[in-house]
Amino acid sequence: MNVGIDKIGFFTPNYYVDMVDLANARNENPNKYLIGIGQTEQAVIPNTQDTVTMAANAALQVIDDSNRDKISLIILGTETGIDNSKSGAIYLQNLLGLSRHARAFEIKQACYGATAGIQMAKEFVNLHPNQQALVVGADVARYGVRTAGEVTQGGGAVAMTIAADSTILKLSKNSSVYSDDIMDFWRPLNRTEALVDGHYSNDIYQQFFVKTIHDYLQTNDMNLTDLSALVFHLPYTKMGLKGLREILPELSETDQKHFLSEFEASRVYNKRVGNLYTGSLYLSLLSLLDNSDDLHAGDQIGIFSYGSGAQGEFYTGTLQPGFKNSQRKKQINEILNQRTRLTVPEYETMFAQWPKLDAGDYHLDDLKDHSQFTFTGVNESKRQYQTKA
């Protein structure tokens, strides 16, 4: 049975900061950000958007009357939870008007959460081929103004439906996983900004990639050249390039050029958005689907997922005849091109307006946020959401 990704959509809010502007404001050579980090723009998240609203806005692109009643599993992968108890997936279920008979829950393991959701959804659909699952990776990446991690911030959501007879990507039955108790990145309960050991995290990422891809290829009696492209978790796009370079010596010069070309296609969108944490890998997959000129139905794609702390997983997918979608590509480019470019002071002000964990009750004015779903504050310690017509 062809179980896999049937639809995929993306959302990020209507603001960004240009990396040249940020570099100049921080007295850095812009190439440190443009080349050294591999980013050109970074999404800036207003306080009227959170993981729930971004997930719901992304899901609008994959949920319609043709599949709404088939969704019986809702999984939100996030490390930017909005409640220590209640799952964001429950809010998502309500905002989207999905069945009350659906299972709905949240998964947390750093940037790996959406992948865990996809693997669970795949098994669910194998058992229930007439039903579908909604899996969303949604996050806000915050490290702080004028910190070492500032250039790797961002946010947004990627929503996917998992179904039998999928039109985009058939998922492999097997995968290779590796996990260890690693303190490369963490976010204590009293913080909205993450803590990270950057160089250590880069090293662990590359180690986990090499371990899992080689294990997968060996276990499944495959060669690297059986794959037409590799997709990486991209908290910043240079990180994926570092991973790719670990295995390039195993390829011919011609194959190296091919994999590098496909990697460039896979980071077109990520370069303009920044870090989505759980959604980063799947935005990269979406970018590859939309921007590669050399892929065809039947090609196998290698997929590397990584979540600090740490969990790595490598699996593959086979492209289906419907993987190209010009309307989807047009919609995503419109989302990115129609955003408002903030000055660095404006970005700093918006960043500082993010609600504190102990903010109590408050109301947010969402008149400038034209997204269909917005967050409007907290009343009696209960989060308030609005659906616009």
Keywords, separated by commas or semicolons:
389 residues; alpha+beta; Peroxisomal Thiolase, Chain A, domain 1; nine-stranded mixed sheet; three-stranded mixed sheet; HMG_CoA_synth_N; Thiolase-like; Hydroxymethylglutaryl-CoA synthase; hydroxymethylglutaryl-CoA synthase activity
* Sequence of secondary-structure elements: EEHHEHEHEHEEEEEHEHHHHEEHEHEEE
By secondary-structure content and strand pairing, the structural class works out as alpha+beta
Helix proportion of residues, in percent? 25-40%
Q: Determine the mean pLDDT.
A: 97
Q: What report would you give on this structure?
A:
The protein has 389 residues and is α+β, with helices and mostly antiparallel strands. It has one domain: Peroxisomal Thiolase, Chain A, domain 1 (3-Layer(aba) Sandwich). Helix content is 33%, strand content 26%. The protein is built from 12 helices and 17 strands. It has helices at 19-25, 30-34, 51-59, 88-96, 113-127, 198-219, 237-247, 253-266, 270-273, 280-291, 326-337, 344-352; strands at 3-11, 15-18, 41-43, 71-77, 103-107, 132-141, 154-164, 169-179, 185-186, 195-196, 229-232, 300-307, 311-319, 340-342, 362-363, 373-379, 382-387. It has a 9-stranded mixed beta sheet with strand order 5-4-6-7-1-8-13-12-11, with helices on both faces. The protein is globular, with a radius of gyration of 20 Å. The chain starts with a strand and ends with a strand. The mean pLDDT is 97.
